[in-house]
Design brief:
- With 392 residues, the protein is mainly alpha-helical.
- The protein is 50% helix and 2% strand.
- It has helices at residues 18-21, 63-66, 87-91, 106-113, 117-128, 131-135, 139-151, 172-180, 198-204, 207-219, 229-234, 238-242, 248-263, 275-290, 297-309, 321-336, 344-382, 386-391, and strands at residues 77-80, 83-86.
- A hairpin with a 2-residue loop joins β1 (77-80) and β2 (83-86).
- It comes from Trichonephila clavata (Joro spider).
């Protein structure tokens, strides 16, 4: 099928394109050509993909295909102007190792990592899913971009919430939601230890889409001012005027994050994507960030429920781009508003933070209202035509 982001001469971007063939090869049993599509996966423990997947026929990675000229000098230490990353320590960090559990101790992680929490979590997730090898991502630009991105999360009560929201194949809730729409036959022989979402997402989603989902999660609140869309629209903020009062914050987050990526080649960790891959990746990230606008909530949920209620269809068609995008939109939405579903300790901390942020906005609102009333008051007593001022 053809999508809105594709031109008529663009190659198809579904599971058969270059990105689709790179279906999370980390899920091959030994990541060699000897894997025949059967046998347990080293990451998720499943015996085989749930549905026919390009993973079963993906060509094996070779040393030549995974090592790039610009990454030959990259060692176990990545040195940036204001920070250092020890790759071995990050790969074996016990706290980061808990990133795939639902009640991930994000506040403990923030105390440990400080301002580097987002970049460290991004590295660990990309490493676990084999995305560095699949897309030949250079490490230095990768860390440079995500470190710059995390500096754009302002010091607000919920200013660092984007660092905790990891949607897609990592979150337990998303795993259970996606699992609901797979045939029960796929799960009858599974035991609890094997029920890892990598089996669903890894077998049915091209790696490019998984990477887009992770990137969108990291970008989706970039440069958030700590105010709501309604506030920005009511106060005629520059962003509201620029985006015509429509999904103001979400458009701003996406545009600002992409502007950062394209502003300097030092941040371009996507440099090895093919043109069609880059075009689709950008489309997906934008769509996923815009899906976090709560004004779109009922539209997305209604479409999702209608898809599931249609008894004549096969529920989610994993070969259909639109269906996969809908699942990804639901995944990032679930991850964006999952606070009440966390354990009480985490839930209360997020609740206090969002309450403080709303309190700040209320204070600003009252200040602007009083300022406006004072302006009208002075205009009334300083005007000869008081009737007209009073009517105003």
């Amino acid at each position: 099928m053809s999508s809105d982001y594709e031109s008529s001469d663009s190659p198809p971007s579904g599971p058969e394109d270059a990105g689709g063939r790179r279906i999370l090869r980390a899920h091959a049993a030994v990541q060699t050509g000897s894997w025949t599509g059967s046998g347990p996966c080293t990451l998720c423990g499943r015996a085989a993909p749930f549905t026919p997947s390009p993973l079963a026929v993906a060509p094996p990675l070779t040393k030549q295909s995974t090592v790039e000229d610009d990454s030959k000098d990259e060692g176990p230490i990545i040195q940036l102007p204001d920070c250092v990353y020890d790759l071995e320590a990050l790969a074996n960090d016990p706290l980061l190792g808990l990133i795939d559990i639902w009640d991930f101790p994000v506040f403990d992680m923030e105390r440990q990592a400080g301002t580097l929490i987002l970049s460290q979590m991004c590295y660990r997730v990309f490493l676990a899913t084999g995305l560095f090898e699949s897309f030949r991502i250079p490490l230095t630009p990768f860390f440079a971009y995500f470190h710059e991105l995390e500096k754009g999360y302002r010091d607000k009560p919920c200013g660092r919430e984007g660092k905790e929201k990891w949607p897609a194949s990592r979150q337990g809730t998303v795993e259970r939601v996606v699992r609901t729409y797979i045939d029960d036959d796929d799960f009858e022989d599974d035991d609890a230890d094997e029920r890892d979402v990598y089996g669903v997402m890894g077998a049915n989603f091209p790696a490019l889409e998984i990477m887009a989902l992770y990137a969108a999660a990291a970008m989706h609140d970039y440069d958030h001012p700590g105010r709501t869309n309604a506030f920005l629209v009511a106060t005629f903020s520059p962003q509201a005027v620029l985006y015509n009062d429509r999904s103001v914050l979400e458009n701003h987050h996406s545009a600002a994050a992409w502007s950062l990526l394209l502003s300097d080649n030092r941040y371009n960790w996507l440099r090895h994507l093919e043109k069609a891959e880059f075009k689709r990746f950008r489309f997906l990230v934008i769509e996923l960030i815009l899906a976090t606008d709560l004004k779109m909530h009922f539209d997305i949920v209604t479409e999702f429920n209608a898809k599931l209620a249609d008894e004549e269809s096969n529920f989610i068609d994993w070969t259909n781009e639109a269906d996969r995008l809908l699942v990804m939109q639901m995944a990032i939405k679930l991850s964006d508003i999952n606070g009440p579903c966390k354990c009480q300790q985490l839930h209360m901390q997020w609740t206090y933070r969002i309450a403080e942020e709303f309190y700040e906005q209320v204070c600003i609102t009252f200040y602007l209202l009083i300022k406006q009333l004072c302006t009208v008051y002075h205009a009334y007593f300083n005007s000869k035509n008081r009737d007209r001022v009073f009517q105003f």
